[in-house]
Amino acid sequence: MQCIQSNTFNCRSFNYRRYDRTCFLSDLNIGLTGALRPYNPIDYYELRTGTIDCSDKSKYFECSNKKCLLRDQLCDGTDDCGDRQDEKNCSPKDFGYSVKLAGAKEENQGRIEVSAFGKTGYICDDQFGLQEANIVCKELGFDMGAIDFKGQSYFARDVKENNTLYMMDDLKCFGNETTLLDCMFAGWGIHDCQDQEIVGVVCKTPQEKCGKGYWKCATTNECVPLTFMCDDLNDCSDDSDEDSQYCEAPTEIRLVNGSSVNEGRLELSHYGIWGTVCDDDFNEDAAKFVCKRLGYKGASTVKKEGYFGSGSGPIWLDQVSCSGDELDLKQCTTWEWGEHNCDHNEDVGVVCDDTEPEVEVQRHAKLPQSGDTTGLANACGLRKDYQFMENDLIQARVVKGATARKGDYPWQAAIRAKSKDKTAHWCGAVIVGRRWVLTAAHCLQGYPKGSYVIAAGDYNVDEDEGTEQLRYIEEYFVHEEFRKGGHKMNNDIALVKLKGHGFEFTDDVQAICLPDTNTEYEMDLNCTISGYGSVKSGVAAYSHRMMAAWIPILTKSVCNMPHIYDSALTDGMICAGLLDGGVDSCDGDSGGPLACLDQGLFTLYGLTSWGHRCGFANKPGVYVKVAHYRQWIEDTIQKHS
């Protein structure tokens, strides 16, 4: 009616934007010609008496919403139809389109640079996966496709961080395309990305030998990263990286190149491939574990810096630290198999005392099968050797400020919300695997996933301590029954999957253990809380340093007393704290850990969820009971790994 009744000009057409019910009037009757600004998504309408006959296909193009466009509006980079219909079936020549790789020494890898309409920019890593990487590589002439993709500006260290020009975002390919132009994306130059989200690819090339950290496929000249072996994804075109002869091969150890059978360079066979172990952090207890597995009862000695000569093949393990009493190598703390920052001149050696053999001595021995089969970390719940005792911080409170020492809480992560040029603390989170963190479900409401970044290894947010790691979210999974069951905070748990290879485990970044489903939550068991939350109840004054404290677990019967929470706690909740007030988690700590020592390992008994104010008498904090959700956690990780 506004168009018909307009007295200011001769209205002949209008665009209607559905989501806010807004009309845009026009005195033209050929869609978005002239200087009109395009609005998307919209419907287009014309007065019947002024409607142009769109049947002349040599002059006009009719959109599915009946909008009539001039032919020169096709393939011009502008979404005139509203569903990109006018920008499909275009040739590279129409756009002045080209694509190349840059930023790496090898021609088969680098950041993706896209040129169109006289501009050159990048592709954002949002939604970008191996399927999109395959299309890029094949378009560039690498017929084997992609072996990997790298987000977070991995190949763009030389690109200045100032209003990065992204040509494509939210790229989605189906696998049968021959060019990126055939894939779906947000539109030329349309994106919501920050500077550090330039994506790159590594394309497969035929090779006689594979480089450091790569494995050669059995019958083809392809090389795949060692970390891609036996991960339930076929990366070799002959599928040999998932062959049972490798994936089911036992892990073995041996000592070689020594003057006697009880000494030598330590070598491991993993997936049937013999390799070495780096000497970084390899301690006497790790040597003790090796000697025990080989049948030696006496003392053991570590030999570093290639004492028994440099080995060959992959360096399978790095940062190995054991207590000496382990029965399985996965109980020792290590980086992931195949991850290291060493050369073979750092291959570790071991000397075993052969004076008291407790069993028949073996030149090499099989180890129990180990591996990250669930997405959860192989080693968990460990931290540096100088942990404080339980009474060290018993009077401290996360609310008012006892600073955690660096390295005390390596499983603590933080969810930060991105703004234009910085990030701000939003919630806590807990590392349970290299690519997986747990948090409270309510923490993931308010922003789209692209607005969050996950930080770990950070103890002072105002300083660059050299230990921080930032990772982006690939996807998150909120419990299906969140806010159901009679309480708005019921089932307040979510899993976050990180992009790429996730966190690199170091002294300051580690995973926490998870409790068994039948774990007993003992009354007065002292546990730790940590985070960057508010230092004052009711005030959003987040701490710039990680805070921590010890608090006791309370029984459900106590928590549900009338003057406390009056039967509000469900089966998936526990409460913990001091009934006379003081020590407590607070605003901004949500999603953070309630960690308890269980058989010597820090175990995630709870996630900070809700409460009535912070540190007040008879109002202890309420936490997600993680044991109650153990099966959900495992099922979710397995489904989405």
UniProtKB/TrEMBL annotation:
Keywords: Disulfide bond, Glycoprotein, Hemostasis, Hydrolase, Protease, Receptor, Repeat, Serine protease, Signal. Residues 99-204, 253-353 form the SRCR domain. It holds the Pfam family SRCR. SUPFAM superfamilies: Hairpin loop containing domain-like (SSF57414), LDL receptor-like module (SSF57424), SRCR-like (SSF56487), Trypsin-like serine proteases (SSF50494). One of its GO terms (cellular component) is membrane. GO terms for molecular function: serine-type endopeptidase activity. GO terms for biological process: hemostasis; proteolysis. PROSITE patterns: LDLRA_1, LDLRA_2, PAN, SRCR_1, SRCR_2, TRYPSIN_DOM, TRYPSIN_HIS, TRYPSIN_SER. It comes from the Eukaryota. Residues 1-49 form the Apple domain. Gene3D superfamilies: Hepatocyte Growth Factor (3.50.4.10), Low-density Lipoprotein Receptor (4.10.400.10), SRCR-like domain (3.10.250.10), Trypsin-like serine proteases (2.40.10.10). Disulfide bonds join C63-C81, C75-C90, C173-C183, C278-C342, C291-C352, C322-C332. This is Neurotrypsin. InterPro entries: LDL_receptor-like_sf, LDLR_class-A_CS, LDrepeatLR_classA_rpt, Pan_app, Peptidase_S1_PA, Peptidase_S1_PA_chymotrypsin, Peptidase_S1A, SRCR. Residues 398-638 form the Peptidase S1 domain.
